[in-house]
Design a protein that fits this description.
It contains four helices and 14 strands. It is α+β, with helices and mostly antiparallel strands. β12 and β13 form a beta hairpin.
Amino acid sequence: MKISKTSIANFSKSNFFIPSLVILLVIVGWFFLLTIDFAEEDDSDSVSWSQKEDYIIEETSEGIFVKNEKAGLSFKVPDGWRVEMKNDNTEDLINEFWITLLSSDAEVGTNNLLTKGCGLSVWVEFQEKQFEYIKNEMETIRQNPENYKINENFQKEIIKIDNHFAIKWIGKSDKTEIYEKIGQVIEIKIPVDNKIIYIDARVLPSYQEECFRTTNDFLKTILIE
């Protein structure tokens, strides 16, 4: 995903939202793992985000579920977590919308970064060229998986979510002060039928066990048509 897009979300409005964190990570100089010879994404290609009206939140005896029939997506909210609807709409940019899930103990600091607890965000983009870009990237990772496991701080791999292949990226700063503030970043991109389902999470050092476990359990609840 190109950082030049504010389709990546406005840092001042997004709390811990990872796409805006990516901007911060670029500023501190450690965002991307390696150079990949892909064609530059065409910003003129039309892109749209699933909007608030696409999502239905259902409370059942088995828990809270979020469904998006337009995107063919549904998932279960982790038990005890809360759901927040987020958007970043400006006159000059596309209407951006995402779902944020936060643990009951989650807290956000004055700098809009998660300071306590666990959280993740989910959103859907409809964009054919970005879809093809991610599919090409996925094929390159399949052919050279060893090139995407740089060190203990950075790795990118292919995983499966509800029988769909996805790219999973995990990274953290090798600078202690940055890692303690930001934690580890997890980004998952699932390309399906010219749309991309994004899942972003951030794991603070003191919440690793809980957040990794809950994020992995969350991924198992995702259904994609």
